User: What shape does this take?
Amino acid sequence: MAEKIVKKTKLVKSKPVVKKVKKSEKKPEKIIVKTQAKFLRISPRKLRLVINSVRDLNPDKSLIRLKYLNMKGGEILSKAIKTALSDAVNNYNLDRDSLIFKALMVNEGPRLKRMDKSHSSRFNRGLIQKRMSHLIVEVEGVAKNGS
Assistant: This one.
């Protein structure tokens, strides 16, 4: 009975959005792919700690770092990054080596609130709040030469 129970988290909503940016005719066209994961059962503060550790890395190196990070937010963020990378490579034919993070954001979602008699006079009159968060991952890259 020493088995560890692992809850699988899933991306509730994944929306790739393509924005084409043209700066000049000489430079290749950059495409931004956006992926959202909403209503995640982790507080935004805990998820921001994980995001700040991988914000300056490229997506492939961040996945390696998140693999060895012993936090719940690491698993959630790695799934969102993998989704954004696969959308960019498979759906929009972007070069995987050219991909960088355009934005990594965590916003606060709704809260589950319940009353607890044991915390009656403390902790905001016995109100326990379970926080949720919304995660947004934007990846920017250049299309492959073959297309």
